[in-house]
């Protein structure tokens, strides 16, 4: 059984799912994302999640067990007499904050109808509300997807980067205060895989199907949804007029901070025996690219303990 220590990277066996696959298995599940969202806002106890979410006892129990097994939560007694437990974010779990902040920032910019449901973020260092800016950790310059060159590393293949199927949550979460567009992009394992593949240059239907090993009906559904959301746009292929190509729009490219911070988290906390799954470089400075979030108000690098997150009013 694979062990995920909460304070050091997981050693992955050769030939299995790589860092990306394990990360997608975590963030590519709607319930996991919801539990993490509330955990970042201070929720720790079983009953608090049950009150905040329309989740059954069975599903909540399974997801808490999964996140604990992944080293993201740890159980601790908060009432010794009755041996009641709460679930606290570990170092590994707290390290997911750049991913959550990137999700909230994208929603604020591109899904205005959900802004009132977003947590409020303030930077304690400058004492102002902020939005994170994606920059290169090596040189500090802001980056966009076209500024970064990415390729598979020694453990990186499409097959190893798609997680094995797990129990999935049905996509009817609007009543839970969830952000439906974000869930459409990363709340499903195939959505997350297709989105990640598009950032690596895939744009044809058959490429998504063949490279990812995804069922054609799933690929067709995901591409349709991405186009409806304005994340992809379709156009005739340069190879054949009766073929379609799917390219990221500006809205889709703006999701890159979520993708890059998730991959970076995965590589830090999952070490494959063969080496990394993905390698990114920033040609502008000639260094390996690692994402760093900066405050758009004071431009200082953001640190987890300097970010104040509060629940939305009401």
From TrEMBL:
SUPFAM superfamilies: Winged helix' DNA-binding domain. It comes from the Bacteria. Keywords: DNA-binding, Transcription, Transcription regulation. One of its GO terms (molecular function) is DNA binding. Residues 12-115, 176-274 form the HTH hxlR-type domain. It holds the Pfam family HxlR. This is HxlR family transcriptional regulator. It comes from Acrocarpospora corrugata.
